[in-house]
Design goal:
367 residues, 2% strand, globular, 12 helices, mainly alpha, 68% helix
């Protein structure tokens, strides 16, 4: 518990202190946001707002987890886990791709950075590296960092092992690519209003912090009652998730309307990559659809809008993603953001109830 608190405190301090320093640096370098011309007209006043706030978010998560790891090593001799470092690799590698995209925007002085093809190629390479390392790198717990299959909670309901070892690895790489690309782009789509992506991510990571913490107290081979999880180093995963939630919380101080800084693709891609990696490492890839339900809704609204327009040349929403639809209906930006936070909170609570209910059912405690 002390290591968890240390990670939270360090992450919060880094974000609160580091964000204004980054704001001044970005102002000095004149790295401001360029607003899409087809977006809501009210957003044009945001032109020039500093971007790349995700740099501080990533730094806060890494330093928060590292300080916790140092404390555990000095007090108990516990070495940092490979599972944690793989999850952080997923976050930082996606964040680096986002940083390149943000840098391209300010160099081109427009809202378009990397081409769609270049961004997908980068995501494919990074997700493939993460997937292969997750299968190959040994862990101190003896449990794999990832399992070659698709799981709702813990045990795969579809194992790729039926295809043989080599093909199972190929299928797993494709599955991880789908998750990484989907979640990183989903958070990126949600990052369209002041505080929306940061606040929603904060709530989602609190959910994953609780899930991983529960798994750490019910690890297979431990002294506990009820169902046990064959998950590698869930306490480390819990600390990372909580550090991410606290980093987003601290960032909100500067990112709420009117925002003093945007997280940019540096933040949204890294947070999406982290969310995907946590779902893989905790063996809850399908449950993540509920835990990150708001991001799913945002993505589906964009897919529906584009698909329906191509077929009928008509629009379902006034503008997609769906948060812009409510803006154009006359809702104030802050009202949209807070209500979307409430939706995400409800979805996280539903996900946690399902997770706990699954544990109760598997533990044989019903009836």
């Amino acid at each position: 518990m002390i290591s968890l608190i240390i990670g939270m405190v360090v992450s919060f301090i880094v974000t609160i202190v580091g964000t204004p320093l980054l704001i001044r640096l970005v102002h000095k370098l004149n790295y401001g946001q360029y607003i899409r011309q087809d977006g809501p007209k009210s957003h044009q006043v945001k032109r020039g707002t500093p971007i790349m706030g995700g740099v501080v978010i990533n730094l806060a998560i890494v330093l928060g987890w590292a300080s916790s790891a140092i404390y555990r090593y000095c007090s108990r001799g516990d070495a940092p886990s490979w599972s944690a470092m793989l999850v952080l690799f997923a976050m930082l590698s996606m964040g680096l791709l986002g940083f390149i995209d943000d840098f391209a925007k300010v160099r081109k002085k427009q809202n378009l950075g990397l081409s769609v093809g270049a961004k997908f190629a980068g995501q494919f390479v990074l997700a493939t590296i993460y997937a292969l390392l997750s299968l190959m790198v040994p862990t101190k717990s003896g449990f794999p960092s990832a399992q070659a299959g698709i799981a709702f909670i813990e045990k795969p309901f579809l194992s790729f092992d039926f295809a043989g070892r080599l093909l199972a690895a190929v299928l797993f790489v494709l599955w991880v690519n789908l998750l990484m690309t989907a979640w990183s782009n989903a958070v990126n789509l949600t990052d369209g209003l002041d505080g929306l992506a940061a606040g929603s991510s904060m709530i989602a990571f609190v959910g994953y912090g609780l899930i991983a913490f529960w798994e750490s107290y019910h690890i297979k081979g431990g002294d506990h009652i009820g169902y046990s999880y064959a998950v590698s180093d869930p306490l480390d995963l819990s600390i990372i998730a909580v550090c991410a939630a606290v980093a987003c919380f601290g960032f909100l101080w500067y990112n709420t309307n009117p925002a003093s800084i945007f997280m940019g693709d540096t933040g949204s891609l890294s947070l999406g990559g982290l969310f995907a990696a946590l779902s893989i490492a905790t063996h809850t890839e399908v449950l993540a659809v509920i835990i990150g339900g708001l991001f799913v809704i945002e993505t589906l609204s964009d897919v529906i809008q584009v698909g329906f327009f191509k077929i009928t040349h008509k629009r379902v929403f006034k503008m997609a993603p769906i948060h812009h639809h409510f803006e154009l209906k006359g809702w104030h930006e802050s009202k949209v953001v807070v209500r979307f936070w409430m939706i995400e909170l409800l979805l996280v609570l539903v996900g946690l109830v399902i997770f706990y209910g699954d544990w109760v059912a598997r533990s044989g405690l019903i009836g």
